[in-house]
């Protein structure tokens, strides 16, 4: 078995073990909440929870790709708000499909702007996107004068309020895009390049992997997914506000890291991210459904993020120790032959 194949097999085994733990956590959380509030398991309530999860889930797909590649975008909450308000404003003067498209295209453009700056300025994406977080939010406040956008036509609401087979369209979008993201990451050359670039940028470039196109494509794709989430949110509520998405980036990053994506890049799976999104959605909605102050949800999310980052660091240290042990064993095996 080649080194890359063995590494891929070990990664899949690790992902399976982590995902199994997340799945167990989801089941425990569901059981705990349903015991306290049996109405939580009603079909209507579960559909509402699924719709809420879909917004974070859509953005988490793009963020997972970004972090696996060794990048991050802290401005996604502001992108979410700006795309939502622009789509709502456009919906008042152009047909609904054109307004939705404008919001998604704007998201891709904002993501591309971040990607260009990260690549050309060649500094940490944390610094770049921390600046655009404030910039994009400021633009959203300026174009709306700080007020929500209301009075959109009923046709604009179709995307966020329509159900297919009893399930909101947003959930179907999430399912389809998650399958596509999984296939790209696991079974395509681009997915392998993504993981390689996140594992070691220098080694990937030395192997001939084009970093520029990869970074720009991932940032643009992430922006488009965030734009889609913002457009669906505006469509669902029939309005949009520049305060949309405050803290959204923390929810998304917490889900991605908890889902097993290494913050240092080069490792992660879409299945784990989805399970983490579902788990955090159950925790957030469950706390509210059992009558606990919603502010505690903020404490829980922050705590989960800290724990997830700590576990990620411990896992990386364990992997590093394991790699050193394997290297020492191989050296010891070659020594007698020499």
Main CATH class: Mainly Alpha
- Which range best describes the helical content: under 10%, 10-25%, 25-40%, 40-55%, 55-70% or over 70%? over 70%
Strand order of the largest sheet: 1-2
Largest sheet: 2 strands, antiparallel
Tertiary shape: globular
Please describe what this structure looks like.
- Helices cover 78% and strands 1% of the residues.
- A two-stranded antiparallel ribbon has the order 1-2.
- The longest helix has 43 residues.
- It starts with a helix and ends with a helix.
- The N terminus is likely disordered.
- Strand 1 and strand 2 form a beta hairpin.
- The chain has a single domain, classed as Orthogonal Bundle (ABC transporter involved in vitamin B12 uptake, BtuC), CATH 1.10.3470.10.
- 41% of the residues are buried.
- With 338 residues, it is mainly alpha-helical.
List key phrases describing it.
single chain; 338 residues; mainly alpha; ABC transporter involved in vitamin B12 uptake, BtuC; two-stranded antiparallel sheet; 13 helices; 78% helix; globular
């Amino acid at each position: 078995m080649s080194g890359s194949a063995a590494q891929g097999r070990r990664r899949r085994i690790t992902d399976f073990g982590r995902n199994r733990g997340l799945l167990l956590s989801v089941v425990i959380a569901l059981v705990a909440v349903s015991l306290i509030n049996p109405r939580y398991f009603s079909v209507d309530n579960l559909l509402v929870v699924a719709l809420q999860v879909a917004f974070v889930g859509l953005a988490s797909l793009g963020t997972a790709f970004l972090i696996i590649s060794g990048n991050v975008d802290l401005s996604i909450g502001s992108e979410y708000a700006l795309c939502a308000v622009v789509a709502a404003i456009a919906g008042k003067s152009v047909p609904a499909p054109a307004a939705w498209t404008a919001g998604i295209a704007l998201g891709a453009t904002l993501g591309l702007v971040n990607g260009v700056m990260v690549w050309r300025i060649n500094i940490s994406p944390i610094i770049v996107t921390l600046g655009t977080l404030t910039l994009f939010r400021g633009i959203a406040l300026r174009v709306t004068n700080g007020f929500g956008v209301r009075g959109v036509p009923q046709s604009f609401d179709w995307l966020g309020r329509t159900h297919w087979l009893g399930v909101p369209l947003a959930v179907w979008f999430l399912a389809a895009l998650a399958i596509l993201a999984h296939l790209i990451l696991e079974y395509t050359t681009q997915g392998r390049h993504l993981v390689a670039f996140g594992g070691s940028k220098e080694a990937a470039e030395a192997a001939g992997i084009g970093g520029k196109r990869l970074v720009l494509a991932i940032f643009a794709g992430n922006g488009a997914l965030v734009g889609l989430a913002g457009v669906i949110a505006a469509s669902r509520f029939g309005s949009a506000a520049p305060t949309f998405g405050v803290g959204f980036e923390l929810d998304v990053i917490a889900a991605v890291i908890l889902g097993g994506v290494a913050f240092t890049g080069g490792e992660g799976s879409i299945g784990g991210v989805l399970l983490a999104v579902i788990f955090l959605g159950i925790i957030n909605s469950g706390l509210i459904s059992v009558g606990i102050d919603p502010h505690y949800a903020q404490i829980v999310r922050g705590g989960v993020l800290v724990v997830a980052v700590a576990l990620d660091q411990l896992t990386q240290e364990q992997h590093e120790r394991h790699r050193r042990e394997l290297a020492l064993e191989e050296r010891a095996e070659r020594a007698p032959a020499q």
